Amino acid sequence: MGNRFGVKDLLLYLFLTAILASIWLAMVQIDRQWEFISLTEEQLEEQTKDIAEIRRRLQRGMIPSAGYQNRDDNESGLNANTKSWRGFERALQAQQQPDYAPGDWLVDYFPDNLLTLTPSISSDTYAAAVQQRVLDTLITRDPETLEWLPLVAESWQISDDGLTIRFKIRDGVTFADGEPLTAEDVAFTHRFVMDERIAAPRWRASLSRITEVTAEGNEAVFRYEEPYFGTFELAGTLPILAEHFYGRYLESVEAAEEFNRSTGLLFGSGPYRLENPSAWTPDQGIVLVRNDRYWGAAQPPFERIVYKVIQNDAALLTEFRNGDIDFYRARPLDYRELKDDAEVAKRAQSFQYYDARGGYAYIAWNQLNDGTPTRFADKRVRQALTYLTDRDRITNEVMLGYATPANGPFNPLGKQLNPDLPTRQFDLDKARSLLAEAGYEDRDGDGILESAEGEPFRFKLSYPSGSDDYKRIVLLLKDLYVQAGIILEPDPLDWPLMLKALESKTYDAISLAWSSGFEIDLFQFFHSSQMATGGDNFINYASPELDALIDQARAEMDESKRMPLWHQAHEVLWEDQPYTFLMRRSRLDFVDRRIQNIQRVAAGLNSPGLWQMPTEWYVPAPMQKYQD
After folding, report:
1. What digits encode the pLDDT tens for the residues 497-541?
2. Would you call 109 helix, strand, or coil by DSSP?
3. Mean of pLDDT values over 460-470
4. What is d(CA 305, CA 281) in angstroms, rounded to the nearest whole number?
5. In the prediction, which pLDDT does 76 show?
6. Are 584 and 353 in contact (CB under 8 A)?
7. Neighbouring C-beta atoms of residue 184, cutoff 10 Å
8. Residue 62 to residue 59: CA distance in whole angstroms
9. For residues 119 and 216, is the Cβ–Cβ distance under 8 A?
């Protein structure tokens, strides 16, 4: 007779199952309790750290009083206890407005995906826009007077010879995790960037003039072996990296390579932070949250800053019309039409202005491809192409007058531009003559120029995909160039592919834009030493004459003597045409009306993050639409 599963067996089975389930539930409960205890301990530790920091700052009188705005100093409008907080004065004034309220989100956009947010190894303006909300600098700038003001540094001293600058680090500055920011972190930042194991050639190029940075007590001391006109700005605007966060990446070659491969190692002391500063990847959206431990006198007003990636101009306009983004940087045609759109005017403010840091659009002619000189290595070819580039038609027909032709890299608002140099006008005959001198003729009667070897003059012009303005410019150039027998093939590229092309230097010609300033340093872009991999002389342009002028200008501290050197450098670039400089655009911005205190200033607009300056914009409570 076989064994039977009886009632007693069932009851025993259920009993054992109940015991096992109870044990499992107890274990889960214990795990949850440990997690809760651990989380509570972490929160208590953080709160203890924050309370200790507040107590220390109060004891040292470091927190400006509510009467900060009471002006009693004729020179700066600040009393003796608050002069070092002048970098926050404009933001504090905004927060004194009757309708000011903290909260809401600022929703911005990028036209392309970002490859990385990691500082030092990122190379595009989009990543820089995010980083400047997260990383602090020693100084900031008044957007109206353009005066340098204290930020992380409360004061500074410059030696008579200009070779030593001492920045006194403000007491009480902390990173987003509550750890103090000290002079050691500033010295570490320089040491980190200059370490050859870190893939930061652009940063190393820009910091090459700094001999060393040391921490001496609460002072970060920058030393130079020779004079450099931009010493103060170079030192003061260096984004500060936390040694306790980034230091481990200098422990070995493998650790440095891990850093170089990273996409989202972004951590600092600024007003905003990534929720997870170690794990951002390009497939995620970009969301910055308010740094609740921010040390500044004016707290950041927005709860979050959100960046969407919108690669199509039509989709971008739709998002803006629907109120899903707060900004619309319009193309000229859209701007002209939208200004008269009643619905857009109801919900958005419009601004047309020249941005002081807005740069120039250009076509870069690659002179060396895989070690072999290209047709663009001949300056007569580059000059001819500039004569074929009708910049008046570009600015009038494509940009509808919202731009001005450019003939060099220097800002007309500054003093570097050589006023005696004309802007070449469209001249088909001159272009044909130069091309014939360079050996290009229509040898088979098909209307296309060929080289002496019979190779047709055909090239690809790469440009950012998704931009109708670039597309229209390139199509116009295609029609212009074919008149001289040159075939231009439009080559739109997504931003990641664009960066790869620049890094590998595997393109024919490329159209992009550089940001600018009142006085810029040409070294990074046109000095022959920057032809190395990772440098921004990605056109392989070498001019001993220009190299010498750049070196002389950089070392000249006397502005009256430096400007003639820049004028000569401008003349070399005008003659050689390594770029065909296209235009300087007007900024054509629409901004959601709920955002208040947007002001026109000498720098353009008082935009958040400009020169790391504290945010002056806000949204009154009744107009806020987002909540965490």
Report:
1. 888 888 888 899 999 999 888 889 999 899 999 998 667 899 999
2. strand
3. 90
4. 17
5. 35
6. no
7. 15
8. 8
9. no
The topology under which CATH files domain 360-585 is: Dipeptide-binding Protein; domain 3 (3.10.105)
Structural tokens at position 515: 């940001």
Tell me the pLDDT band of 46, cut-offs 50, 70 and 90.
low
Tell me if domain 116-274 and domain 291-354+588-623 are identical in fold. yes
Question: So what's the pLDDT on residue 371?
Answer: 85
Which two structure tokens, joined as six digits, stand for 297? 């006198």
Please check whether residue 351 is in contact with residue 358, taking contact to mean a CB–CB distance below 8 angstroms. no
Q: What is d(CA 393, CA 384) in angstroms, rounded to the nearest whole number?
A: 17
Distance between CA atoms of 17 and 362, rounded to whole angstroms? 75
Q: Which amino acid is at 542?
A: A
Highest CATH level, class, for 291-354+588-623 = alpha beta
Rounded CA-CA distance 521/146 in Å is 18
Instruction: Look up the CATH number of domain 116-274.
Output: 3.40.190.10
Contacts of 22 (CB under 8 A, 6+ apart): none
The Cα–Cα gap between 491 and 475 comes to 11
Q: Where are the domains of the chain?
A: 116-274, 291-354+588-623, 360-585
Average per-residue pLDDT for the chain: 88
> How many of the other CB atoms lie within 10 Å of CB of 369?
16
* Interatomic CA distance for residues 310 and 287, integer angstroms: 15
pTM for this prediction: 0.74
